[in-house]
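User: I'm new to structure prediction. If I give you an amino acid sequence, what do you actually give back? Let's try with this one:
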Amino acid sequence: MSGSEDGARTTPEITPAGRPLLDPDQVKHLEFVQSVIARLSNNSFLVKGWTLTLAGALLAFAASDAGWPAAGTALISLVAFWFLDGYFLYRERLFRMLYDDVRRPARPEAGLRLDGPGHAPVEPFSMDLTPYTHRTRWHRAAFSTTLSLFYGGLAVAHLVVLVAVLLS
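Assistant: Good question. You get back a string of structure tokens that encode the predicted 3D arrangement of the chain. For your 168 residues, that looks like this:
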């Protein structure tokens, strides 16, 4: 950042590609946001692992001689994990939007304002996701293609076992 002698900030320096250089605070803010995104992604991965483990155990237990209560419990736990995973994906998408706005600071001197549609001004080190909640919804994340294929396939397997247990 260019600055005056008293330490006040002025216009950002521009790279040869025409993009503003990020100051150390912006880089640190991006690191904070990225660490949250990584944690949410890891949580989503762990939820999928627990889902497969629990589903396999409960369905095997239901198919042996536990009956429909175990199969029903397996289906309920599957839906709970699906919604939890959808919530993690939703929050991850919100933090990615925050990341995008932090990495592209407003440049009024170049006529660029990021407080229009699709962008929000970001305070330094802010983790506030409120400006982004209108741009995506939890149910869109929960029923995304990848989660629908993963959990939908498991739901079909659960229903097959439940019907087989009920008919036996």
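You can read the tokens as a compact description of the fold. Here is one thing that stands out. Residues 58 and 74 are 6 Å apart (CA to CA).
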